[in-house]
Amino acid sequence: MPRPKKDEPEDEPMGSASQDEDETDGEEEQKDYPVEKIYGRRQKKGARPGVWEYHVRWEGFPPDEDTWEPKENLTGSEDLMRKLDEEMDAKIAEKKAASANKSAKRSRQSDVREAETPTSKKARSASTNGKTYSKRSKSRQSSPERQDDEDEDEDEDMDKPKTNDSASATSTEPAKIVSMPEKYKKLPSWENFISKVETVESEVDGELYVFFTTKDGDNVREPCSLCRKKFPNKLFDFYEKHLKWHNHDTVDA
After folding, report:
1. I need a labelling partner for 37 at 20 to 30 A (CA). Which of 77, 95, 184, 222 fits?
2. According to the model, what pLDDT value does residue 243 have?
């Protein structure tokens, strides 16, 4: 491929007639120089976008002899030009993608900041006769004496033992009353299974019922007629504790 004439070493004039004729005619043969590498490109002046000039390193010449050449001067170096174009186009596409990602990231950050920033509220005021009135806050500033009283109340509240609400609710629930479990009903005596006789009450039908607690923690209700047979001693102890005894003084005649 031809190398620019300005970079070629000048031949010494031979003074021959043939050379004089060639110089007179302005014809000079151009030599082809091998390309070592192509390592850059630029937009060709006056040409449409995408028409390039390539930075060429000539084989056998130092770097200061590198030149910018149009595509038509690099016949035979199409592979080198195509490789450079692919590398440069890939770099341009990568830069565009990075710039687009950066812009999108800034846009998302801006949206987040706008969402987190509360909308400022303008103070409302009414103007009458040149005077401006603004709404007064409902909160009152406590006086030093009132603040001391409040602090004392807080200290007293902290000293008070906290009650377990769930435990209180459980303790106020009425105990469930059941019949004697089946496993005890066939036994001849319940004396060893009764913890305490709570009360004896008369129902609407006139029959007496005994309310008692078993050692298993069950609250049981059974007819008094059955209880007299199953645990007479426990029942007698209950009557003995709840009967009122009267002492009568005897007077000698």
Report:
1. 95
2. 79
